[in-house]
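Pipeline run #58 for the internal structure catalog. This entry was flagged by the ingest filter as a single-chain record with no existing model, so it goes straight to prediction. Upstream metadata was stripped on purpose; only the residue string is passed forward. Reviewer on rotation: M.T. Logging verbosity set to normal.
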Amino acid sequence: QVQLVEAGGGLVQAGGSLRLSCAASGIIFGVYVMAWYRQAPGKQRELVASITGFGRTNYAASVKGRFTISRENARDTMYLQMNSLKPEDTAVYYCNADRNGQGYWGQGTQVTVSS
């Protein structure tokens, strides 16, 4: 059974930082492209950042330079370090694992940034 469990969300003031984690089980973690998505109220889910098993990263323009995605294949865990947070970063953040179109989702963790 595949499980992706996010942690690290919370309430933070604008300009602050949070670190999200996503612990995976039931998959061969290293062969999956891992990604963070987010969904704000009334908006579509959007890609925040992704990272391949080899560590190649990709970021949405809105978070580039502020967020850093990383992974520890030995621990089956992915991270998202979020700095200089803005109120517009407020959303539920979801972990995603994808391999050749077969994808899995976590349950999401709420990030709220107050102004």
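catalog note: The CA atoms of residues 6 and 22 lie 4 Å apart.
catalog note: The chain has a mean pLDDT of 97.
status: ready for reviewer M.T.
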